[in-house]
Amino acid sequence: MPSAQFPELRFKHLEDVVLPKVARVRLRHPAGDPIADIPGAAEKAIRSSARLNAMPAGSAIAVALGSRGINSIPTVARTVIDTLKAMGHAPFVVPAMGSHGGGTAEGQVKVLANLGLTPEALGCEIRATMDVVDYGETPDGARCKFDKNAAGADAVVVINRVKSHTTFDRPIESGLVKMTAVGLGKADGARAVHRTGPPALSETLPALAKIALQHSPIAFGIALVENAAKQLVVLEGVDRDDFFEADERLLKLAKTHIARLPFDHIDALVVEQIGKDISGAGMDHAVTGRADLRSIPNPPPFVSRIAVLGLSKATGGNGLGIGLADFTTLDVAAKVDVQQIYMNSLTSTLVEKSRFPIVLADDRDALRALVSTSWSRTDPETGLCIIRSTLHLDEVLLSEALLPAMRASANYVDEGPLEDLRFDEAGRLLTRAYAADMAA
Question: What pTM, to 2 d.p., does this model score?
Answer without folding.
Answer: 0.76
